[in-house]
Design goal:
- This protein is mainly alpha-helical.
- The protein has 2 domains: 1-196, no CATH class; 202-406, no CATH class.
- The protein has helices at 2-54, 63-94, 98-107, 111-126, 130-154, 159-180, 190-196, 198-226, 228-306, 314-328, 331-339, 343-400.
- Helix 1 packs across helix 3 (98-107), helix 1 (2-54) crosses helix 5 and helix 2 runs antiparallel to helix 4.
Length: 417
């Protein structure tokens, strides 16, 4: 929990600093860069760390070699993403979208380092040594704060430098992780590791893309329909809603997947159900409590944290709080589908949310602005939850029949595959 607090604090702090320095439009630029980062982080977890956790790689004899290959895979993914984001940022800049272009160009150089830093966090969780994850995130935050202080002292008011301060923290923690876990930086074995897990990771990656699409693409749709300033307002409302609750939810997910896989292997469905209920319960409790705070004091919180101009986005924050509360009921089912290796079903369930989210957000934003976009996100959350519950129940039937370890096994009779 402490580790996730550090991670969430740094991400939240960057958004607040950008809003204070560059206003809603600047926060809109950061929102686009952060949406791209969420896509990268979800993909690297789907392709590298989630398969490692599900397969209990860190408990095997060749664990050291696998960690080395994981570093190579992370660097390869990060460098590829750097090239893509730099090209997209340049294209936006040349096409006249300077605000969004600057955001992506500032983000691109740091992708590989931020990617590798998150890898070290997951290595600590998988090894059962979360203290190392906490120390790595503390190094990340310390370097980032130092960079923020330098920006403040020099009086630089630029989105480019604020995003770069975030990236500088990633660089420091990424290199510290190499020493911390005794791993050398090289490119050998990374691609082969990705290929060896592709039978499982392709579905996890597809799930990550659709899940990202249902949440982060909603922000991009708002940027296209309404422009940078309303996008910044929606981002502020979203960050306010997910901030404290995300500490519990993401922290639980970090150790939840390794524990779920271990519980299934040792105690079967009973053990898996216990872990899934624990994670869901913690998420529901935290999101419910903070959701009530948003409903009763959202305007005040937006004004104090982001500035007076953001208070008008209170209705959007209320809709997002409802949507986020609905989403937390799906945390346990997600763990169940991952631990039982039913990753194709997970993709279908999350795809349901994406199919609902994009048209709903676009249509509602066009008619009712930022508040409508938030209502569309809440509606998509409900659709995704229904699908997750259906497939999690199907996964239980497979486990009880002894087929829960076979990826993509289809049921005949009880539930459609």
């Amino acid at each position: 929990m402490g580790d996730q607090g550090f991670a969430s604090m740094s991400n939240f702090a960057v958004g607040v600093v950008v809003a204070r320095i560059a206003g809603a439009a600047g926060l809109g630029a950061f929102s686009l860069a952060y949406a791209c980062w969420i896509l990268v982080i979800n993909l690297h977890r789907s392709l590298v760390t989630d398969p490692m956790a599900i397969s209990n790689d860190v408990r095997k004899e060749d664990a050291a070699e696998t960690l080395q290959r994981g570093v190579a895979a992370e660097v390869a993914l990060g460098l590829g993403a750097t090239v893509i984001f730099a090209l997209v940022g340049l294209a936006l800049w040349l096409s006249g979208q300077h605000t969004f272009g600057v955001g992506l160009l500032a983000f691109a150089p740091w992708v590989a380092f931020l990617d590798l830093q998150d890898y070290w966090r997951w290595v600590g969780f998988m090894q059962g040594k979360p203290g190392k994850s906490l120390v790595n995130d503390a190094v990340f935050d310390a370097a980032q704060v130092a960079a923020f202080v330098a920006i403040y002292v020099t009086g630089v008011h630029s989105v480019f430098f604020v995003i770069s301060a975030w990236g500088f923290g990633g660089v420091t923690a990424a290199f510290y992780g190499l020493r911390q876990f005794g791993v050398r930086l090289h490119m050998r074995g990374g691609i082969s590791l990705l290929r060896s897990r592709w039978h499982m990771s392709k579905w996890l990656a597809g799930n990550s893309v659709t899940n990202w699409g249902a949440s982060q693409v909603s922000l991009i749709v708002v940027g296209v329909v309404l422009g940078p300033a309303p996008l910044g307002g929606l981002k502020a409302a979203s960050a306010l809603v997910t901030g404290p609750s995300a500490v519990v939810i993401q922290g639980g997910g970090s150790f939840g997947l390794p524990e779920a896989a271990k519980a299934l292997a040792e105690r079967g469905w009973v053990g898996l159900r216990r872990v899934s209920r624990l994670i869901s319960g913690a998420g529901i409790l935290s999101s419910g409590v903070f959701g009530l705070m948003i409903i009763f004091a959202g305007r005040v919180l937006l004004r104090v944290l982001y500035g007076a101009s953001f208070a008008r986005f209170e209705p959007a924050a209320e809709f997002l709080a409802v949507g986020f509360f609905i989403t937390t009921f799906g945390l346990g089912p997600i763990l169940i589908l991952k631990a039982t290796k039913q990753t194709r079903w997970l993709l279908i369930a999350q795809g349901t949310m994406l199919v609902v989210a994009i048209p709903a957000v676009a249509a509602f934003a066009f008619v009712w602005g930022v508040t409508g976009a938030a209502a569309g996100i809440a509606l998509a959350s409900l659709a995704g939850l229904v699908a997750l519950l259906v497939y999690a129940r199907a996964a239980r039937r497979l486990v009880e029949r002894g087929g829960g370890e076979a990826d993509g096994v289809e049921l005949v009779g009880d539930f459609p595959a």
